[in-house]
Amino acid sequence: MSSDLIERLNEVLPENARAVPFHWGHLHLMEVSEDQALTMKNIPDYDKIVQHYADNGPSCTILVDGKPGLSFGTFCPWPNLYEMWLVADQPTAKKYPIALTKYSRMAVKIVEDVANPMRLQLVVRRDNFSACKWARAIGFEEEAIIRKYTPDGRDCVFYARIR
User: Which of 56, 116, 129, 131 is deepest in the core (most CB within 10 A)?
Assistant: First the structure.
């Protein structure tokens, strides 16, 4: 599945970007947001968990100017349900916000084509306003607020795309 995602993304990415297979080491080459750094710190074995997700669903890293700019993918907890995860390099996100949204929207559609889920969902911390805005921008609809969902007790918002 990941090879289909990578191949299709590489057909449309600009010259300074290319999709490659995800590796947990990409996370440590990015300048992540404070929120993301906190998540990575508070979840034991975060690297192993994300690599497990990547190994079991469509995933990739988009290199921008040779550096990891965005890693994302999905995992399938049970048939017809896929959950999306994403980690962005903040300087890249700030430099290319429109392109990040455009290619994220495209990646969601490719994941839906490749995996054919009935439901694709995304969980975002409620106090991460830019991530909530981004989730809506790439076509997810807000479904529910889940209280005290994170390891440090923060609320999250469930977003979904239903087919």
Answer: 131
E strands, 46-118, are 59-64, 67-78, 81-88
Expressed in angstroms, the distance from the first to the final Cα of the chain is: 19
158 domain-assigned:
no
Q: What is the pLDDT of residues 77-87, one digit of tens each?
A: 999 999 999 99
Residue at 123 is within a domain: no
Question: Within a domain: residue 50?
Answer: yes
Residue 104 in any domain: the answer is yes
Q: Write out pLDDT tens, residues 13-51.
A: 999 999 999 999 999 999 998 888 888 888 889 989 999
